[in-house]
Amino acid sequence: MVAFDLLGNIAIVNFDKGVSLFEKKKKAKHIIKLNKNVTTVLEKTGKVKGRLRKPELKHLIGEKTKEVKYKENNCAFRFNIDETYFSPRLSNERKEIANLVKKGESVFVGFAGVAPFSIVIAKNSKASRVVSNEINRVADKYAKLNVELNKVKDKIEFWDGDIKKIAVRKKGEKFNVIVMPRPQLKDTFLKETLKLAKKGTKVYYYDFCKADETKQVIEKVKAECEKAKRKIKIKRVKKAGEIAPYKIRVRIDFVLLN
C-alpha cells in the first residue's frame, strides 16, 4: 500500500517516479475505500516551496476540492491545502506544548499558519493570552475562521505580517512562552523574535537537520542568541519527527537568562 498523509477529508499521496496514472488512480480509489471520511485524493507533485510553504498538489480522484476539514486535540480546522501549510504530524507536538504552558502565562506563536498551535494552546491550557503571527494572508483568513470554529476568539490575538517588522513595532511586549514551529527556512528569525522575550522566557524552537547533525543546530541557536546579546540555557533537545530518510525535525527548548 502506498504511503499517504491523511488530512480529514483529503488524502495526500507521494508516488515514486515512473508510476502510471492508471496505477495512481487505482491506489487512490483503494485509499477512499479503506477510509470512509476521505472524499478527495491529491498527489504531491513537488516540494513545499518558498517562505509561505505552499505545496504542489494535483487532483487525482474524488471531490474536486482542496479545502480540508480536519480535527485534532479537541479542535477543528479548515484550510485550503493549496494555499496554506499544515502538518498533521505535529499533532502530538501541539498537545505537548499546550501541556507545558502554565496557568496565567502569555504565549507568542510565530509561523502560526492557520493557527493550529495557537488554538490547541488556547483550548487546552490556561494561558492568559495567546498571540498568533503569520505572514501568509490566506492562512490568516483561515486562522481567524478557525478561531471562530473553536470558540477561542477571546483568548487569541492576531499580529498579521512579517515578524521582522512586527518584532520592532511590538518590542515593548514580552511573553512567558515563545513557540517557533519554523518551516524549512534558512533564516532562524531568532534575532527578531527574541525582542519579544524577557528573562525567564521559555522558547520552543523547531528546525530541520540530518539525524546526526543536531549538535550543529544547537550551536547555530547559541550563536544567533549571542548575536542578539541574549544568554540562554538549553533545557531539552528532542527529535520531533522524521520528515525524510535520515532527516528529522528537531525541537530545541531553551530559557532566556537575561
Task: State the gist of this model.
This protein is of the alpha/beta class. It is 28% helix and 38% strand.
What report would you give on this structure?
This protein is α/β, with parallel strands linked by helices and 258 residues long. It has two domains: 4-65, Met-10+ protein-like domains (GMP Synthetase, Chain A, domain 3, 2-Layer Sandwich); 87-256, 3-Layer(aba) Sandwich (Rossmann fold). Helix content is 28%, strand content 38%. The chain is built from seven helices and 13 strands. The strands form three sheets. A seven-stranded mixed sheet has the order 9-8-7-10-11-13-12, with helices on both faces. Strands 1-2-3-4 form a four-stranded mixed sheet, with helices on one face. Helix 3 (116-124) links the parallel strand 7 and strand 8 (129-134). Helix 2 packs across helix 3 (116-124). The radius of gyration is 19 Å and the shape is globular. The N and C termini lie far apart (52 Å).
Helix and strand arrangement:
Layout: E1 4-7, E2 10-13, H1 21-34, E3 40-49, E4 54-62, E5 67-72, E6 75-80, H2 91-100, E7 106-109, H3 116-124, E8 129-134, H4 137-149, E9 156-160, H5 163-169, E10 175-180, H6 190-193, E11 197-210, H7 214-227, E12 232-244, E13 247-256
